[in-house]
Amino acid sequence: MKTIQILSAALLVTFVTACGQTAEPETAPAAAAASKADAGPKVGDKIGESDAEKAAKKAEKDASIVAKAVEEARIEAELEARGIRSIGWEDLMPEGEEERLAKMYQSQMATLYSGSPIAEGSAMDTAVQIGTFNTVGALDGVKIRIPGYTVPFEYGSKAEITQFLLVPYFGACIHAPPPPPNQTIFVKTDDPIKLKDLAQAVWIEGTIRVQTQNSDLADAAYTIEMTNLTKYEY
Fold first, then answer.
1. Which of 113, 178, 179, 210 is least surrounded, with the fewest CB atoms within 10 Å of its CB?
2. 192-205 pLDDT, tens per residue?
3. What pLDDT was estimated at residue 194?
4. Which stretch of DSSP H or E encloses residue 191?
5. Are 202 and 226 within 8 A, CB to CB?
């Protein structure tokens, strides 16, 4: 009887030892997986740029804004020294003109959507220039600088241009209806230029005149005797 108990104890020791030996390889993959899971992102972890990276980008953007403002101030000071005034398109419209223009557009829309069909090729099937020739007399003879898009009367990469229209938005007079006459400027220059990229906005410098010019593309209430043309930097 004692021998059997001894043998049973021996078998138990062997079984426990064997279990211990076989348990290690089975738990190793689980431990590795748990370790990998611990190394991954957790709830609350920040995803994306760090605070330091965001701060660096913001500082770079702020520096760019400051540099641009300094450059614009330098240009304005230079223009003032040369007696040139920077203006915007709204400066070409006399007081109350925006309200008058709005009423004109409302009237046109009411006509277009009155229910009567517009026949293709008819007088109604055209890009009508809406607006007036009302101008700001105080601008006559002033040396100005204004940004805009060029619309030449003749095309071609080698075409030397001495006359063109300046408009406030791209595609006007070509892919879109012309702006009002007092938002259209007829530009002329003694020195021929080449207009290759019509989608590029430009700065025009010169003497502005309250002088009407008519053309097949659009009528203009102002004329500029251009002295300089530069690329508009966005």
1. 113
2. 998 888 899 999 99
3. 87
4. strand 185-193
5. no
Domains of the chain, first to last: 87-231 (2.40.50.870)
Contacts of 210 (CB under 8 A, 6+ apart): 135, 136, 137, 139, 140, 221, 222
Tell me which of 20 and 96 has the higher pLDDT: 96
| Structural contact between residues 222 and 186, judged by C-beta atoms closer than 8 angstroms | yes
Backbone dihedral region for residue 70 (phi beyond 0: left; psi -120 to 50: alpha; all else: beta)? alpha
- DSSP state, 156? -
Dist. CA 69–CA 109, nearest whole Å: 41
* 41: CB partners within 8 A, 6+ apart: 47
pLDDT in tens, 66-95: 998 898 899 899 999 999 999 999 999 999
Alpha-carbon distance values, 40 to 6, 31, 53 (Å): 51, 15, 21
Distance of CA 67 to the CA centre of its chain: 19
Cα(140)–Cα(179) distance, rounded to whole angstroms? 20
